[in-house]
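User: If only I could read backbone structure tokens as easily as an amino acid sequence. Those tokens are not coordinates but codes from a learned vocabulary of shapes. Could you go through the record with me and say what the backbone is doing? Here is the record:
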Amino acid sequence: MTPLPLPRSRGKLSRWTLTGLAAGLLAATAGGEARADAAMALDKGCLSCHGDPPRGKAPTLAALAQRYAQLSADELTKKAEQLCEHRLLGGVAAHEKLTPEESLRLVRWIAAGAR
């Protein structure tokens, strides 16, 4: 049995279809990264203190997101360095477990809204 020929492209329809597929793939990738960052925040214990309700005087992730959203890329990098070097709040066990890469990912995720 011979396979049926594929329909020919009809110009704009195929371009729009491809554009939609590409946009969907990009959104899925971005959503996957955000979910991975949220999972890392949970795994590293961030939500133990910065969840809702927060522990003690710790700010919630939403409050941190509002603060961090105002920062430039360089300021976020500096904030991440301070976090993993224990200069923001010294002696926080969860902070001490962060690598520089994890710290930067978390700070960027928080600045993007922590969602």
